[in-house]
Design a protein that fits this description.
The complex is a heterodimer of chains A (329) and B (338).
Chain A (H helix, E strand, L loop, with lengths): L6 E12 L2 E13 L4 E5 L6 H8 L8 E10 L2 E2 L5 H7 L4 E4 L3 H4 L6 H13 L3 H14 L5 H4 L9 H13 L5 E5 L7 H18 L2 E6 L2 H7 L2 E6 L2 E7 H6 L4 H9 L38 H5 L5 E4 L2 E3 L2 H6 L4
Parallel strand pairs in A: 3-8, 3-9, 6-7, 7-8
Antiparallel strand pairs in A: 1-2, 1-4, 4-5, 9-10, 10-12, 11-12
Helix pairs in contact in A: 4-5, 4-7, 5-7, 7-8
Chain B lengths: L6 E13 L5 E14 L4 E5 L6 H8 L7 E6 L2 E2 L5 H8 L3 E4 L3 H4 L6 H12 L4 H14 L16 H13 L5 E5 L7 H18 L2 E6 L2 H7 L2 E6 L2 E7 H6 L4 H9 L48 E4 L2 E3 L13 H9 L1
The chains are: A alpha/beta (329), B alpha/beta (338).
């Protein structure tokens, strides 16, 4: 890990207002993203992966969400506490984001040129003509053929894959240092997904930016990330370099998740499924939140929520029996 | 395969009339000469990307759309052409559909017991007591508590709701169920539970499934044979084991190669470019030729036919044409792999 990380998330806790009071969606999430790093965040629905990403740029509705604790440090400042006006200078310029559904993220009544130019004109005070030229360059960069003509089209003229390319062009317009991509290929077909992942990989290398890729798909994570954060029920349960994680997952949840993914090669066996279900955010679970579904649970697991413990240099796991077995406690 | 398969689809065509803003109405050829069979107790996986026509095919098979050409025989009865209404009336009770989104498929204001009983009520001929007993039996069959019939859909998770939808589909003891992306909206751990449930029910009741999905790995887990659709045409049909280990059609090969593997050490091949073509102005010849890495001059002129390349396998590609192409496909396989 480089000396000072680009972004450092520490003990992030996010709550949402519900009929029954504040409900905790994300609790005690901590991890760093280094300069040029490629971090994958994986988890099922309700794991808190998107909430974490949106919190980094404070994109939650202020009335219904609150930060009950923690910090997100970037460039020496805590993004959770700086004034909104300062944050606006960071969003889209230093840290940009690409979402799952390119159709609802693009404005249907503005041309592609208008939408790419917006951040260039806002953050870099470019003239209209310069911004247009840059927009064409950016479309070229995201490999949209015939960029000079496409730039004047409206989103409905583009296919889903093209729209996601446009979203990426908008995100990288100001050469951000971190690109957060939240399920960027989930709405796309598998051949288009492969194209978009390849594009993101190339752009990361060309522009030297860090990428945080959020996905429910372990395959996408394995192909793209260098480091993987596994989330379950609002918490980080494991954090490891990608090859270490897939070779030797330590957390029983990670293990179960990997086993339940149907394979495309090798033996076909009956699919494994993790018994039970993910607890609701306000459900009270004694000790480890995965405990009730875990085949290896011991009395100690019910006693207290395990800590996220470093077991082997940069491999962290939130499981008391497993970290003890690894000799870390 | 039996002399008469449970489902026999021959040369199925489907065109929809569409209109571009301000333009003339155009016919959009969504399905082109689809032919396949499904045997008793068999699962045929139908895979393809969006716009390939897989859902349209599923809807035709349960009688929701009337095709513009070709025929569909279910349980030996024609549900297309002049005998459509009598044919559908005869087979309807043995035919069911499970949709992708279990939330949209259940009436939120109906207790789930009522939803499950609806097919029973429509079929009629049961006492109140019989009917309620059957509902509880169905709940148990899909792994839900027998006494949950009084609860509402919102009290269940996505996976449980899909179980409810399956219970309703089973109510009249069907022989054939079209499952259209039944697990796509679910998390992986839930997916596995539903796929396993569908397989258990098949083993128990000898059901046949048309399992429509975009996820090749899920199809691999459940199907016996797989048909691959591209832009409205079947490009390849093969037993599961062969399709995944030795795909013949260049599109099947590209599709399988594009699936991300949970293996960080894998070195992936070149990514296939381009996108699925417009169905309003489909490319001439083979519809895949615009993206095909092995394209030949004749591919842009001549439409390839789906023909048997080996017992039990059919592929629609000029590379496997016994007349003008390579007669020996083993030789070709070697050529392609070197």
């Amino acid at each position: 890990m480089p000396s000072a990380p680009l972004v450092s998330i520490d003990d992030l806790t996010v709550q949402f207002r519900t009929d029954r009071g504040w409900s905790t969606a994300v609790e005690g999430v901590s991890f760093d993203i280094g300069d040029g790093d490629c971090v994958g965040v994986v988890g099922e629905s309700g794991s808190g992966k998107s909430v974490t990403a949106l919190s980094m740029l404070r994109l939650h509705a202020r009335r219904t969400a609150r930060f009950a604790g923690g910090s997100v440090r970037y460039d020496g400042r805590d993004l959770l506490r700086i004034p909104e006006s300062d944050l606006r200078r960071i969003r889209g310029r230093d840290i940009a984001m690409v979402f799952q559904d390119p159709m609802s993220s693009l404005n249907p009544v503005l041309t592609i040129c208008d939408q790419i130019s917006e951040s260039l004109r806002l953050h870099q005070n470019m003239s209209r003509a310069d911004a247009r030229r840059r927009a064409v360059e950016l479309l070229d960069l995201v490999r949209i053929a015939d960029a000079g003509r496409r730039v004047d089209e409206y989103p409905h003229r583009l296919s889903g894959g093209m729209r996601q390319r446009v979203m990426i062009a908008i995100a990288i317009a100001c050469r951000p240092r971190l690109l957060i991509a939240d399920e960027p290929t989930t709405a796309l077909d598998v051949t288009i997904q492969a194209q978009i992942l390849e594009l993101l990989r190339d752009l990361r290398a060309e522009l030297g930016m860090a990428v945080m890729l959020i996905s429910h798909d372990l395959g996408v994570i394995a192909e793209f990330a260098r480091r993987v954060i596994v989330m379950y029920a609002g918490r980080v349960v494991e954090d490891a370099p990608v090859d270490v994680l897939f070779r030797r997952p330590l957390h029983p949840y990670t293990e179960g998740l990997m086993a339940s993914v149907p394979a495309i090669e090798g033996e076909t066996a009956r699919l494994y499924s993790i018994p039970g279900r993910i607890p609701d955010p306000d459900e009270v679970v004694a000790g480890c939140r995965f405990g009730p579904r875990c085949g290896y649970a011991e009395p100690v697991c019910r006693a207290a929520m395990p800590d996220l413990v470093a077991v082997d240099g940069d491999h962290r796991v939130r499981c008391t029996p497993r970290s003890r077995a690894a000799g870390a406690v | 395969m039996a002399a008469h398969a449970l489902v026999e689809v021959r040369d199925l065509d489907m065109a929809f009339r569409t209109r571009r803003a301000g333009g003339r109405p155009m016919m959009q050829q969504v399905l082109h000469k689809l032919s396949f069979d499904i045997g008793e107790g068999e699962t045929l996986g139908l895979v393809g990307e969006s716009g390939s026509g897989k859902s349209t095919a599923g809807r035709i098979l349960v009688g929701l759309y009337e095709p513009t050409g070709g025929s569909v025989r279910l349980f030996g009865r024609d549900i297309t052409g002049p005998d459509r209404s009598s044919g559908l009336a005869a087979v309807r009770a043995r035919l069911q559909f499970v949709f992708q989104d279990p939330h949209a498929a259940l009436n939120p204001r109906m207790r789930i017991g009522e939803s499950i009983a609806e097919p029973l009520d429509i079929a009629g001929g049961r006492s109140r007591r019989d009917r309620n007993g059957r509902v509880r039996e169905l709940l148990e069959m899909v792994g839900l508590p027998r006494d949950s019939d009084e609860r509402f859909p919102h009290e269940f998770s996505g996976g449980q709701r899909q179980r409810i939808v399956i219970a309703r589909a089973l109510a009249l003891q069907p022989g054939f169920i079209v499952c259209d992306e039944p697990v796509s909206a679910l998390d992986v751990s839930m997916q596995a539970q539903i796929v396993n449930l569908l397989m258990d029910l098949q083993a128990k009741f000898g059901l046949s499934y048309l399992f429509i999905a975009h996820d090749l790995a899920v199809v691999r887990a459940i199907a016996h044979r797989v048909a691959v659709l591209y832009a409205g045409s079947i490009v390849e049909v093969a037993p599961k084991a062969e399709l995944y280990s030795q795909p013949q059609h260049p599109y099947t090969q590209a599709l399988l190669d594009a699936v991300p593997r949970a293996d960080p050490s894998r070195v992936r091949g070149p990514v296939i470019g381009g996108e699925v073509p417009s169905l309003m102005v489909p490319p001439p010849g083979c519809r895949f030729h615009t993206r095909c890495p092995q394209v030949m001059p004749r591919c842009s002129v001549e439409v390839p036919q789906l023909r048997e390349t080996r017992p039990g396998r059919q592929t629609s590609c000029h590379l496997y044409d016994p007349v003008a192409g390579t007669p020996d496909h083993e030789k070709l396989q070697r050529k392609v792999s070197t």
